[in-house]
């Protein structure tokens, strides 16, 4: 691995450039926020610092930097605890436990619980696929598709993926979009549990029963 200095960073867009020499007009190399090995680093605060990197190409064949690590930083051990990931896991478990309790109380159909589980697994897989594509410079999963699956009921899987995979946690506009899908889901669930939503709940149960085995 070679090393270069981080010359600039755009927090809003999540990318910056490495300077390949000390000359004022030195050639610069593109780097995306997802390409830092340590996801806890704040690149904006590290402009002017040196990084080790691996030279690669993006999906258009242009040179870019991958697997950046701060020069002089202590190695991160894989066994280090991931507190946000644990909290996301506990939150997802609490939500599914609530759904399970509502199913046992005959407030919700079991088909809805199964639907949430399936959508969460699929959404987590999409996040993992997008992260892998970002690291390899391949075509990415569209952000709109990630939001659609979260909106359909996969938001617990999206929450878990964001924190466990450390993916899609920097872009604020995406985060607000995700929060919107969560609020819409919770509002819809509250409505279905209300007396006004009972007819729709019956329709949802019928529709899901025809889809799920």
UniProtKB/TrEMBL annotation:
Coiled-coil segments on the chain, per record: none
Keyword presence, Membrane: yes
Gene3D superfamilies per the UniProt record, alphabetical: Nucleic acid-binding proteins (2.40.50.140)
Claim: Transmembrane helix is one of the keywords in the record: yes
Keyword tags: Membrane, Transmembrane, Transmembrane helix
Transmembrane segments: 88-105, 111-129, 176-194
Protein name: DUF1294 domain-containing protein
Organism of provenance: Agarivorans aestuarii
């Amino acid at each position: 691995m070679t090393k270069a200095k981080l010359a600039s960073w755009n927090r809003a867009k999540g990318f910056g450039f490495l300077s390949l020499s000390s000359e004022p007009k030195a050639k610069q190399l593109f780097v995306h926020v997802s390409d830092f090995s340590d996801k806890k680093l704040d690149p904006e605060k590290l402009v002017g610092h040196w990084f080790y990197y691996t030279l690669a190409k993006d999906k258009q064949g242009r040179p870019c930097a991958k697997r950046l690590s701060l020069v002089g930083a202590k190695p991160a051990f894989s066994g280090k605890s991931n507190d946000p990931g644990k909290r996301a896991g506990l939150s997802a478990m609490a939500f599914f436990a609530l759904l399970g309790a509502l199913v046992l109380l005959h407030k919700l159909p079991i088909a809805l619980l199964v639907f949430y589980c399936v959508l969460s697994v699929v959404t987590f897989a999409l996040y993992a696929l997008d992260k892998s594509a970002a690291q390899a410079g391949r075509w990415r999963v569209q952000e709109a598709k990630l939001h659609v699956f979260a909106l359909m009921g996969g938001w617990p899987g999206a929450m878990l993926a964001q924190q466990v995979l450390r993916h899609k946690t920097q872009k604020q506009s995406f985060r607000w979009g995700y929060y919107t899908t969560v609020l819409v889901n919770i509002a819809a669930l509250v409505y279905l549990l209300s007396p006004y939503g009972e007819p729709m709940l019956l329709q949802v149960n019928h529709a899901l029963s025809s889809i799920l085995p």
